[in-house]
Amino acid sequence: MTQGTVRLAADAIVLLHLAFLVFVVLGGFIAFRWRWVAWAHIPAVLWGAAVEFGGWICPLTPLENFLRQRGGETAYEGTFITHYVLPVLYPAGLTRRWQVILGASALGANLILYILRARWLGRAAPG
């Protein structure tokens, strides 16, 4: 593979990572419309929250860094959120406390969505 191809693959990993993050945060809204999406969304939320609560690094981050190095670029330290999301959302670095808050927010917001969805389905069911 050429360096350009490897860099393109690293950029594709970033887009995949971002799509996953958006799915974790907003996928509950999609599940409101299409119930089958919940089968993918609930494990995604649990994984996303576990990564935040555990302070782990998502497996996509080392893969992206590996590809960046193979493409002649410099790898970064930390997590995807620290490198790409936090500079946009927060001017300071990601602390452990903020990781827990982000994980709890994603988990809590989606739990509320699923509770509302269950109640809505209960009212819509023929009695």
Task: Please explain how this structure is put together.
The protein is mainly alpha-helical. 77% of the residues lie in helices and 0% in strands. The protein has helices spanning 3-33, 38-54, 60-70, 80-89, 96-124. Helix 1 crosses helix 2. The model has no long low-confidence stretch (mean pLDDT 81).
How much of the sequence lies in strands comes to under 5%
State mean pLDDT (0 to 100 scale): 81
User: Regions with pLDDT < 50 over 5+ consecutive residues?
Assistant: none
Supply the helix-strand structural class: mainly alpha
Work out the helix count: 5
Main sheet specs = none
- Total count of strands: 0
Form type: elongated
Rg (CA only) = 18 Å
Gap from first CA to last CA = 61 Å
Secondary-structure element pattern, one letter each = HHHHH
Work out the helicity level. over 70%
